[in-house]
Design a protein that fits this description.
By secondary structure, the chain is α/β, with parallel strands linked by helices. It has two domains: 4-66 and 226-349, Alkaline Phosphatase, subunit A, CATH 3.40.720; 74-220, no CATH class. 36% of the residues lie in helices and 20% in strands. It contains twelve helices and twelve strands. The chain has helices spanning 20-29, 36-44, 55-62, 74-81, 118-131, 162-165, 180-196, 198-206, 240-248, 260-266, 287-314, 333-336, and strands spanning 4-9, 46-49, 90-102, 105-110, 137-140, 148-151, 213-220, 232-236, 252-254, 271-276, 319-324, 327-332. The protein has a seven-stranded mixed beta sheet with strand order 2-12-11-1-10-8-9, sandwiched between helices. Helix 4 packs across helix 9. It is globular and about 65 Å long. The protein starts with a strand and ends in a 14-residue tail after the last helix.
């Protein structure tokens, strides 16, 4: 009887630090103990090295959707999960954010702590649409962290995903391209509009972070998938874009199990299963953040790689693939038995 195979996509597993010296110092203080399962997989698997792509590009590629000119159309896809319908419009993510001026920079704080209420979303949406009613722009605010901007025609710009900008100076990451000037001017107008809104006046009085800008990114039209076939029998993920791509390509989707053992109990159908573990996608640069990353790696080893390798050894699993940060490892039962391929410390792969 055919057994299932699993592909784990774990962005950030091998890309812990922007400064290698910081990581080297950390590993001397906090050596990786008891990572036998993960190290065994890495040592005995067939390895391919490719481009270190962002999570958006990797997910579109995994679902067999070819690149389009400009951005990957993240907004049109995630909008499917946020209540939107499939249409031919061009959509941009226009996420509400808080930015912090700092000397000659403006630092992106993001929106994880904003807790935008329904009333605030509706008011800012209406004020924006009033401002831009003659520009062919229409803002939708379905959920408090993800807003969507419908554009009458495809703008000639390229943008940077919001998660890549959090904690950074925004200026190098503003929209670029032939129409970049228009969109940067619009951003300034939005900031002035939101500053004067009674929404932010109340927030200032209450000591809450202001919703003082939008971030435009991930523009495009919904990809045509009639001629696309994906290899996946099922997606297991809580990550929004992957769930949107699964809906677009009509792939069965389930929530992410807590452990590999739980997944093995639930994955009863043969075929290729894609599991997205995106809890490490944030940037880990500061020492305390690297310590957090170190702990997540050890937890992944115990909760996922230990039971998956046991299942591969017993024949309950036909293959394990691991994709992360330009690395692709593929391991089957025969390769697992190659005892002469000794495992190396995980730090050697970083």
């Amino acid at each position: 009887m055919p057994q299932p195979s699993i592909t784990l996509y774990i962005p950030g597993l091998f890309a812990a630090a922007a400064e290698p010296a910081q990581l080297t110092a950390l590993l001397k203080e906090l050596p990786f103990d008891d990572l036998m399962a993960l190290e065994l997989l890495l040592a005995r698997a067939q390895q391919q090295r490719g481009e270190h792509s962002g999570i958006e590009q990797t997910l579109f590629t995994l679902f067999g959707i070819p690149a389009a000119a400009g951005d990957w159309p993240v907004a049109a896809v995630t909008r499917l999960i946020d209540g939107g319908t499939a249409d031919g419009h061009y959509w941009l993510r226009a996420d509400p954010v808080h930015m912090q001026p700092s000397h000659d920079q403006v630092i992106m704080a993001g929106n994880q702590q904003l807790n935008v209420s329904g009333a605030e979303m509706a008011q800012l949406r209406d004020e924006f649409n009033q401002l831009c009613r003659d520009d062919g722009l229409q803002l939708e605010t379905p959920v408090n962290q993800r807003w969507y901007l419908r554009v009458e025609r495809a703008p000639q710009i390229t943008t940077i995903p919001l998660p890549m900008v959090v904690g950074q100076n925004i200026y190098p990451h503003l929209p670029q391209g032939v129409e970049g000037l228009y969109w940067n001017k619009l951003l300034s107008e939005v900031q002035m509009l939101f500053y004067g809104s009674s929404v932010n006046q109340r927030r200032r009085q209450q000591g809450l972070p202001e919703i003082n800008s939008l971030w435009f990114w991930g523009g495009g039209q919904l990809p045509a998938v009639n001629s696309i076939t994906t290899p996946w029998q099922q997606l297991w993920s809580n990550e929004l874009l992957s769930r949107g791509l699964a809906r677009l390509t009509q792939i069965k989707t389930s929530s992410l199990p807590a452990t590999g053992e739980e997944w093995l109990e639930q994955a009863t159908v043969a075929g290729h299963h894609l599991v997205v573990l995106d809890g490490m996608r944030q940037r880990y640069n500061q020492p305390e953040e690297l310590i957090q990353w170190h702990g997540v790696v050890q937890e992944l080893n115990q909760s996922w790689f230990v039971p998956l390798l046991a299942a591969l050894k017993s024949g309950d699993l036909s293959e394990i693939s691991l994709i992360s940060d330009g690395h692709h490892f593929q391991l089957n039962r025969k390769q697992l038995g190659r005892w002469w391929q000794r495992r190396r410390p995980f730090s050697r792969y970083l």
